[in-house]
Design a protein that fits this description.
Strand order of the largest sheet: 6-2-1-7-8-10-9
Structural class: alpha/beta
Bound molecules: S-adenosylmethionine
Number of helices: 11
Order of helices and strands: HHHHHEHEHEHHEEHEEHEEE
Number of strands: 10
Helix content: 40-55%
Length: 281
């Protein structure tokens, strides 16, 4: 059984984890490294966190690195999480974009789910788009494209499969949407192709340049920057402002804030929640 992590070992592993995935762990989070990495450390045959760090730092073992990232990321998510972002999407953001599509001024609308975890956020956006198209004659779901990215390989694997068990389906999804957008397969429920077709999943580290992702009309960046340092938050929000451009929109969670971090956006309120519009530079 490995001994407890020392202060120095914690600092070394903490810095490595921040370098790899941006997650900044305060000193009080030493237990997280112990609880989440102990099993992996045992598998590698290392007997203490110091030798585990040396193995990770020198070895270009990408599989092991992916496992560390999987272990250190928190993939908590649910369907239509917090409800109001999806009401804002349906009532405030999609109607004017839909009108542009109908008028022929635009051919495609792009939405980014920037920390998509196991897919619930991106598929909820896709369902909201289907509902909006149903209520708007002439508007087609195929005119919308959702890019869903995450750093965690196992979360992405589950997201791409679009297969959920009863208990995860029950977290935020009503019976009507279940019947309309899912079909049963064995003990699981699988997202229908009409929803899946709108979403492309891709591995992406938010520390990297966002530019290659292209332009987006709306960005969902929720429950992820809470894990990052202020400089990384600034870098990400500044890059999002460039991606969406003036009048593009950003949705963050209620536990995240742009105050003191970004002045590129103005806060708007609707349906008991907030969203952000990018200002012209
Ligand atoms: C708590 S989940 C949020 C899921 C979803 N946005 C929601 O609101 O329900 C946070 C996700 O951020 C991802 N993540 C953490 N660091 C990341 C990074 N540097 N780049 C991309 N994704 C990251 C994790 O893998 C995890 O799936």
């Amino acid at each position: 059984m490995p001994e407890n992590i020392t202060v120095n070992e914690f600092k070394l592993l903490r810095d490595l984890i921040e370098k790899w995935c941006g997650i900044a762990l305060g000193n009080e989070k030493a237990y997280l490294i112990e609880t989440r990495l102990m099993g992996l450390m045992a598998q590698t045959g290392c007997e203490d966190y110091g030798s585990f760090y040396r193995l990770l730092a020198k070895d270009q073992d990408w599989q092991l690195r992916d496992k560390i990232v999987d272990a250190m990321t928190t993939n908590e998510t649910l369907w239509f999480r917090d409800a109001h972002p999806f009401t804002i999407l349906r009532e405030r953001l999609l109607p004017p974009l839909g009108a542009e599509l109908l008028a022929g001024n635009r051919f495609r609308i792009r939405i980014w789910s920037g920390a998509s975890s196991t897919g619930q956020e991106a598929y909820s956006i896709a369902m909201a788009i289907h509902e909006c198209c149903r209520a708007t004659p002439g508007l087609r779901p195929a005119q919308f494209e959702i890019l869903a990215t995450d750093i965690s390989p196992s979360a992405l694997f589950l997201a791409k499969a679009g297969r959920y068990d009863e208990s995860s389906l029950n977290r935020g999804l009503g019976n009507e949407r279940r019947a309309r957008f899912f079909h049963p397969e064995g003990n699981s429920w699988v997202v229908n192709d009409e929803v899946k077709q709108l979403v492309t999943f891709r591995k992406f580290n938010l520390q990297d340049s966002l530019e290659p992702l292209g332009h987006f009309d709306i960005v969902f960046m929720r429950y992820v920057t809470i894990y990052f340092s202020d400089p990384l938050k600034r870098q990400i929000y500044s890059a999002i402002a460039k991606l969406v451009g003036p009048d593009g929109h950003l949705i963050i969670s209620a536990v995240e804030s742009l105050r003191g971090i970004s002045e590129d956006f103005v806060q708007l309120n609707h349906a008991g929640g907030s969203y952000y519009r990018c200002l012209s530079s």
